[in-house]
């Protein structure tokens, strides 16, 4: 276009034709404005994502209370939530279903999903490894080993009996891994931490299988445990587990600015005044609390944390102050939705939430990967 | 990292015609030591058992100068098992080293290539579903072969899903993890719904074992493994430049896309050979390259040393499982119980050295 003008107006001696000068001005104004508008665009995208997730979570929560082996109407759900057991037998039954079955598993799915999402995002942030998962610190293997041991030694067979053993196993494994990785000057460098976690996890998994192969009752406990489910525990377990998770979430939130700086590189972070050892310790404690408490209550739900962290990074960008809350909400939505799906597809039987997360989530995730939606950590 | 790079740049070069190497005495020494260790453990494993045979007799029998009795026990009874251990360990070690090099991620292992997950899901399905079709398949082709087919199918699925104008490290591991998650979920669900006696049999298959190997199976595995290793040996020279990134590799004259594709396919097939010979033995492929790296003080997973270390680990674990333990455990369990802590020990030792 400009070329044409110049060719035509050439003899008149103009250096810049009108059109082109106009173009130059337009370009310079967009250059000046662009960063600002991109930042607003990014912020709008984050806020919209978070708001949409909150709405989806609320809707899924209501659906989760209503759907199951016996489907309930909205009025019945309302009644079941707020009415005291009365004389009407049908209504009493509904109240019982809602208050002792549906509400506990809905609450647990939300709490556990949030914890897994947050800890998945945190561990990817600290290890800077895109395949780091919540089980990386040996937490899942520690819990599994505790479960088969409890079954072997005390004959426990129900989730509410071995929950605290599982939590203890997860905590001990996490502490041992972090302790071993921080010996000497290496001070919990991400790679050492990840590999030490793998080493301990490998060892504990071998012990778990050894016990399970020699004792059939333990094997039986292990196979149900491994599938990962949010049903089967009541509020007597959910409240204490939630307390640990709330502490973990609070610790996690305090470390988010430090993760942003750590991802610039250790030298840079130190130069900007980050206490690296402290922020890593707080982060690892938070991950252990979140993943350990969740694993204790639900069993190992392996893929969720990894998947959710990548999707959250796609939605919000690499800023961990936004990424981690988004991952938490996303985790809650996915786990809750998968639990509902597991109840619907094989009614009146149930598919464990952990199984559904992988069966439904993984192909979806793989499609996003294939389309090149994710960047490395 | 910087310090070692400086040290290595002052290491003498070695030129043989068109090829040139950096002469690393320590790495060569450790690799030879590992080869000797592999041979020693191999002979020890053959010698130990209900009818113990001394080390000198074992070696002379292998060389074809033993007595009739020894020859029967060694060649007919114990050799297939030891050889299977050697093949499985070596194949897993090399496969793991290739995978970690291409993914440029020390947490990657051939498990994420889908082989073990797919094989496990198929095997557990065949064991737990006692229906007509499943029984027919098991009777006609055997459990191992059917599982291998499932594993290779899954491995190739991962390979082609990850292929989009070449293989990209991040896409490969993320796709691989997704596919593995699906197969693991299927396995977990099959185990939950099955009868507990079938579960015990399935679980035993899932950890891998070297029991009851026959010469026929071992010969097939051996030739496949040797052919694949020959291909790897031809291409492996170009693996090192890949660690510097695609641009540098291309600048050095490496057709990186082709090299990566061929090597990765070899890694998938090597893992398949291992699964066919012993079932899905876990963790060897993850641990061996990392341990070999630290023993040889080489900056990337060394192929030869990883293979040898895998073999030492597997045969050694089998030896321990058969002779030293009061209860019989599958080799996969003992391998993990030894390999995991050894990796942690090496990490801690390195950290403490740094602190001094």
TrEMBL record, chain A:
Q: Which CDD domains does the record cross-reference, listed alphabetically?
A: TM_ABC_iron-siderophores_like (cd06550)
> Primary place of residence?
membrane
Q: Which InterPro entries match?
A: ABC_BtuC-like, ABC_transptr_permease_BtuC
Q: Which domain of life is it from?
A: Bacteria
Query: Any one Gene Ontology biological process term?
Result: siderophore-iron import into cell
Segments traversing the membrane:
47-69, 106-123, 135-156, 162-181, 193-213, 237-262, 282-308, 320-341, 353-370
| Any GO molecular function | transmembrane transporter activity
Which keywords annotate this record? Cell membrane, Membrane, Transmembrane, Transmembrane helix, Transport
Give the bilayer topology.
Multi-pass membrane protein
Instruction: Tell me the compartments it is located in.
Output: Cell membrane
Q: Which GO terms describe its cellular component?
A: plasma membrane
Q: Which family does it belong to?
A: Belongs to the binding-protein-dependent transport system permease family. FecCD subfamily.
The protein's name: Iron complex transport system permease protein
Native species: Streptosporangium canum
Automatic annotation (TrEMBL), chain B:
Q: Name one Pfam family in it.
A: FecCD
Please list the GO biological process terms of this entry.
Answer: siderophore-iron import into cell
Reply yes or no: does the keyword Transmembrane helix apply.
yes
* Topology within the bilayer: Multi-pass membrane protein
Q: Which GO terms describe its cellular component?
A: plasma membrane
Q: Which chain regions cross the lipid bilayer?
A: 26-47, 82-103, 115-138, 145-163, 169-192, 218-239, 259-288, 300-321, 327-348
Specify the superkingdom: Bacteria
Please provide the record's keywords in A-Z order.
Answer: Cell membrane, Membrane, Transmembrane, Transmembrane helix, Transport
Keyword DNA damage in record: no
Quote one Gene Ontology molecular function term: transmembrane transporter activity
The record's subcellular location field reads: Cell membrane
What family is reported?
A: Belongs to the binding-protein-dependent transport system permease family. FecCD subfamily.
| Name this polypeptide is given | Iron complex transport system permease protein
Species of origin = Streptosporangium canum
Lineage from the top down? Bacteria, Bacillati, Actinomycetota, Actinomycetes, Streptosporangiales
């Amino acid at each position: 276009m400009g070329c044409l003008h110049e060719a035509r107006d050439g003899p008149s001696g103009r250096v810049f034709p009108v059109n082109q000068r106009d173009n130059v001005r337009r370009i310079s104004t967009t250059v000046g404005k662009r960063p600002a508008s991109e930042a607003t665009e990014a912020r709008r995208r984050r806020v919209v994502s978070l708001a949409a997730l909150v709405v989806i979570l609320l809707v899924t929560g209501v659906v989760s209370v209503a759907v199951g082996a016996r489907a309930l109407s909205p009025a019945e759900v309302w009644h079941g939530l707020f009415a005291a057991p009365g004389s009407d037998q049908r209504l009493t039954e509904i109240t019982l279903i809602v208050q002792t079955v549906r509400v506990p598993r809905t609450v647990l799915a939300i709490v556990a999903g949030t914890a897994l999402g947050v800890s998945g995002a945190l561990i990817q942030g600290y290890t800077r490894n895109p395949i780091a998962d919540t089980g990386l610190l040996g937490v899942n293997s520690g819990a599994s080993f505790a479960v088969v041991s409890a079954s072997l030694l005390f004959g426990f067979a129900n989730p509410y009996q071995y929950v605290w053993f599982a939590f203890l196993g997860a905590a001990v494994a996490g502490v041992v891994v972090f302790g071993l990785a921080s010996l000497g000057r290496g001070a919990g460098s991400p790679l050492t931490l990840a590999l030490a976690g793998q080493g301990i996890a490998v060892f504990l998994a071998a012990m778990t299988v050894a016990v399970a192969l020699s004792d059939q009752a333990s094997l039986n406990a292990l196979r149900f445990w491994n599938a990962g489910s949010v049903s089967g525990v009541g509020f007597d377990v959910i409240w204490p587990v939630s307390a640990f998770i709330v502490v973990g979430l609070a610790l996690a939130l305090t470390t988010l600015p430090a993760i942003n700086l750590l991802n610039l590189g250790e030298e840079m972070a130190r130069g900007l005044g980050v206490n690296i050892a402290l922020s890593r310790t707080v982060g690892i404690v938070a991950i252990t609390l979140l993943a350990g408490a969740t694993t204790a209550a639900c069993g190992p739900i392996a893929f969720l944390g990894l998947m959710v962290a990548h999707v959250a990074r796609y939605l919000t960008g690499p800023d961990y102050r936004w990424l981690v809350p988004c991952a938490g909400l996303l985790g809650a939505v996915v786990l809750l939705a998968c639990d509902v799906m597991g109840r619907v597809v094989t009614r009146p039987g149930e598919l464990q939430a952990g199984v559904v997360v992988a069966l439904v989530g993984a192909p979806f995730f793989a499609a996003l990967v294939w389309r090149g939606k994710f960047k490395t950590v | 990292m910087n310090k070692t790079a400086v040290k290595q740049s002052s290491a003498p070069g070695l030129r043989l015609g068109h090829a040139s190497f950096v002469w690393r005495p320590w790495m060569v020494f450790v690799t030879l030591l590992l080869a000797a260790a592999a041979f020693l453990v191999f002979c020890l494993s053959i010698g130990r058992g209900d009818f113990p045979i001394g080390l000198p007799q074992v070696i002379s029998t292998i060389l074809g100068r033993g007595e009739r009795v020894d020859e029967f026990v060694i060649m007919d009874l114990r050799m297939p098992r030891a050889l299977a251990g050697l093949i499985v360990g070596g194949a897993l070690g090399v496969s793991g080293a290739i995978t970690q090099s291409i993914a440029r991620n020390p947490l990657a292992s051939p498990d994420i290539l889908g082989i073990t997950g797919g094989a496990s899901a198929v095997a557990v399905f065949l064991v737990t579903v006692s229906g007509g079709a499943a029984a027919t398949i098991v009777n006609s082709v055997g459990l191992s072969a059917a599982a291998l087919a499932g594993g290779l199918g899954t491995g190739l699925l991962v390979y082609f899903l990850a292929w989009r104008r070449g293989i990209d490290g991040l896409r490969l591991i993320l796709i691989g993890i997704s596919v593995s998650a699906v197969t693991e979920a299927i396995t977990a669900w099959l185990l939950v719904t099955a009868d507990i006696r079938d579960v015990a049999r399935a679980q035993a298959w899932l950890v891998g074992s070297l029991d009851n190997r026959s010469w026929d199976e071992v010969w097939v595995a051996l030739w496949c493994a040797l052919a694949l290793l020959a291909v790897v040996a031809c291409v492996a020279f170009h693996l090192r430049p890949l660690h510097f990134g695609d641009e540098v590799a291309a600048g050095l004259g490496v057709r990186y896309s082709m090299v990566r594709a061929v090597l990765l396919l070899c890694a998938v097939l090597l893992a398949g050979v291992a699964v066919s010979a012993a079932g899905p033995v876990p963790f060897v492929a993850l641990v061996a390259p990392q341990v070999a790296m630290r023993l040889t003080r080489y900056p990337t997973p060394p192929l030869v040393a990883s293979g040898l270390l895998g073999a030492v680990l597997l045969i050694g674990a089998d030896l321990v499982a058969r002779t030293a333990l009061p209860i019989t455990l599958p080799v996969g369990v003992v391998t993990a119980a030894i390999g995991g802590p050894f990796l942690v020990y090496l990490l801690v030792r390195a950290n403490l050295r740094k602190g001094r």
